[in-house]
Every structure is written in C-alpha cells, then in structure tokens.
Amino acid sequence: MKLALYGGSFDPPHAGHVGVVTAALRALPIDRLVIVPAERNPFKPVVRAEGTVRYQWLRKIFASYEKVEISDFELAQRRSVYTIETVRHFAPFCDEIYLIIGADNLDTLEQWHCFDELNAMVRWAVASRGEIPIPANMIELRVDVPISSTDFRNRFTPLGLEPEIENEIITYYKELNELTN
User: Fold this and answer.
1) Are 60 and 13 in contact (CB under 8 A)?
2) Tens-level pLDDT at each residue, the chain (181 residues)
3) What is the DSSP secondary-structure string of 96-126?
4) Rounded distance, CA 34 to CA 67, Å?
5) Beta bridge partners of 60
6) What pLDDT does residue 181 have?
7) Is residue 55 within 8 Å of residue 75, measured between CB atoms?
8) CA atoms 53, 59, 60, 61: torsion sign
9) Residue among 114, 110, 99 at smallest CA distance from 28
10) Which helix (H) or strand (E) holds 119?
11) How far is 15 from 17, CA to CA, in rounded Å?
12) End-to-end CA distance of the chain
C-alpha cells in the first residue's frame, strides 16, 4: 500500500488545505491520504482551536473524499509530535510513504528532528507556495490558493470552504476572540 501523510496545525483548515489534498490525489500514486492534525506544532508555540475541534472540522471538510482519512494519532499524544514519530507510526502499514509539506518548510527542513532518518523513509511531495523553488528530487504539487490560516485568525478573511463549515469555523474563532480579549 502507498500512503501519503499530510500533517499540520490546520488552525483553521481552509481551501488551501483542500487544494493540497486535491493536488496530491491527482499527482501521487497512492492508495490513501492521511491528514494528521497536530496537537501542537513543534515550530509554533500556540494553537488557537482545540485539537478535537480541528479534527472534527477536517472530518466534515473531507467526508466525501474516498481516499482521505483523518488521523487523531498526534492529537492522542497530547504534546508536540515530531514528524518522524508519525512516519514511524504509519510505516508498518504501507510499502511507501509520501510526506506532503508546504514549500514554506523547505528552508528549515534539514533542521527537522531526525531529518536523515525521515528523508530515508519518505518521498517528499511539496505544495507550491508563491515563487519558492521546489528541488528537482521532490514532487511538486501545484497549488494556487492564496488563503492563509494566519490571515483568517487576524482579520477573518474568507476560508473558501462550504458555507456551513466556514460559518461554524468563523463562529468558533469569534467566540474564542471574545473570551481572550
């Protein structure tokens, strides 16, 4: 079995994430694509939305995607989980792993925990971001969806999702802002 793993904060999930998944399903010869929301990203000290909430949003957004599943592996650890730990967890279930990352991670990729081991275990699939060049030894996933979770959290910019789930996410963050301000 060939598996693609796509991890991240998804705080909140948006059409850019959907674009990455869609591009990966088109470009990669995979049987399953597993989205793995992080409890806490090792490079980001704060996550705004609770992990269980982000997990449920992802389940709703990708419910109709036949090859996509949402994993609570990292959420269940209740801590920051290094990507290598997630890859080691899924490795026994497949013959080949594609690891999906955004091009904005390329500058710091070699600083990731156990990078050499990780690099030996996966094939890299990189979602384009602006004009950041993708190395020739990596698979480029062309994604052109100019939406950012940070922009949404700062200014409630549109997420590009189905109205029902987008309204649920907007309501959640507005209530969160009221509680914290």
Assistant:
1) no
2) 999 999 999 999 999 999 999 999 999 999 999 999 999 776 666 778 999 999 999 999 999 999 999 999 999 999 999 999 999 999 999 999 999 999 999 999 999 999 999 999 999 999 998 889 999 999 999 998 888 888 898 888 999 999 999 999 999 999 988 877 6
3) EEEEEEEGGGGGGGGGSTTHHHHHHH-EEEE
4) 8
5) none
6) 64
7) yes
8) positive
9) 99
10) helix 115-121
11) 5
12) 48
The amino acid that residue 83 corresponds to is T
Token output for 99? 């690891």
Which tokens hold the place of 124?
A: 């890299």
Place of tokens 């992990």: 51
> Which two three-digit tokens encode residue 140?
């480029």
Question: Buried b / exposed e across 134-166, counting CB within 10 Å, b at 16+?
Answer: beeebebbebebebebeebbeeeeebbbeeebb
- Tokens 């698979």 label which residue? 139
* Max CA distance (Å), the chain: 49
Torsion of CA 51, 54, 60, 61, to 10 degrees: -140
The DSSP H or E segment spanning 51 is helix 51-61
